[in-house]
Model the fold of this input.
Amino acid sequence: MRDNLSSSSRIDAGEASSELECLPYSVQHNDEGVCLLVRMGPNRILLDCGLGDSSLLLNTLAKSASRGNSPLPADFVLISHAHPDHARGLLSLHEAFPLLPIYASEVTSKLLPLNWLGQDTKEIPQFCHALPLRSPVELQEGLVVELFPAGHLPGAVAILLTYTTEQRSYKLLYTGDFFLSNSRLVEGLRLEELRGLNLNVLIIEGTYGTSRHPHRRNQENQLAERINRAIADNCSVLLPTPALGLGQELLMLLRSHHHFTGRDLDIWVDGAVATGCDAYLELLPHLPPSVQNFARHQPLFWDERVRPRVRRLQPEHRATVGNSPCIVLTDSTSDLAKYCQPNTGPWLILLPEKIDIKVNKKYFTPTTIESYLLAQHSDGPGTTQLIHNLRPQHVVFVHGSPTYLADLTSLEELQNRYHVHSPSAGILVELPIGDTFLQPAAPETNYEGELTELGTVITITLPDAITADNRWRQFADTGLIEARWQGEELVLRGLSQRELLNQSSDRYTLSDIDCCGNCRHQRGQRCWNPASPLYNFKVTLEGYCPAFERLLNNES
Ligand SMILES: [Zn+2]
Ligand SMILES: [Zn+2]
Done:
């Protein structure tokens, strides 16, 4: 079995190089974690180890080791960030294969122990080696690793692997979880650091599918508004969150939003979320300058003096918490019934979207359950923006519900340019690369306009930025356009002087432009040129690629 878009059929075996492949052990379609084995030439690299079921992981890896005729299931392991769905299997992995080297960013190496809080943390050996950011490190002969901050969580990185042979280099980037926007405690991924890499393969997360999010400030205001309304209604608010990331973002929001600053209000932090806050405090020098500056004037999290008060929930507080309206942040895994007790007032439980949290049907006290969006990953437009900035030959989607990933893989703007894959666990993805690197064409800018129907005339208004393109003069040459339907879409074309003079033929031709319509490799609106990045794809007649070859007159 192959992945659902069999790429090997698109490139002749003779031309293809089999230097690259990806065997996903686990792809986080639900909450099973991410664990991917990548092969680059003779090198075998394990990316993330988020498998929750460690016996499954160890069985798979032991088999992989014996197949590879090696005592180890991979040459080394790279961890993108400290969230459980990427790292929770590491301790079992290390215990089973103590000689297997494990690497991550410095911050991630410090946050990793939060994944094993039930166990004595002193017992957890320092098995993770820290790698520097933005500096290439040759981990094996011919194989270089470089880490780039990916937003999302302090320490989270996108991992660039470069494998160099005598003939050429192969480049693969794994995004881990990424976020292009700045959030309060971590700066977003910087696109400009990654442009121009000439990437062959991009393995990317697709948590939010193609959905589009409102601006972050909007998301924050909506949430603050909802919490404010609940407290005005004499309701306490319960916010279950993962130990790292969202919980700390929520605290920073609650401490600095105008609805709450200066208010006589208690914010209680319980369980692993509180431990997560302590871990952040240790990392202060790695947090954004704005946060370090804030922390010079007041404590980052624990503050009983400044209102609203933020405190760690201690056993002696439990009897009274919720008697009057307050806010509680707690672990996404804890039983929320312990807060919603008969002696407390009503509760509003707010669940973050896209994080799996169990809630009961009934609590001892009136309880309302709602969800909110405070995104920690890029939305659909952010995801395609990253892909178009990198323009790899292969795009492999992991990390997201299968329907969301299918929404992404079926986007025409991706299908027309890249070999798109969305593998299930256990299905090998072959990543053939042509002999010469042909980067897919950059996508066109999209212009958004407005449509007005006025009586018998339709007016289409477009921003004048469109005129900055060199092609505008030719398009607007005569001031006349032709419109025609193409499926559900309306295609506009400028009419040239020559076409107007040449009205005798009723079909305008594209004969003097270099485009798929007069390329010798286009037949039946499909590209048949193995040297083209569009090979085997459906093409539009106006399309173009660098492998264009003009159709000779006697061939037409
Ligand atoms: Zn994450
Ligand atoms: Zn994740």
Observations:
- The chain has a mean pLDDT of 88.
- The chain is about 20% helix and 25% strand.
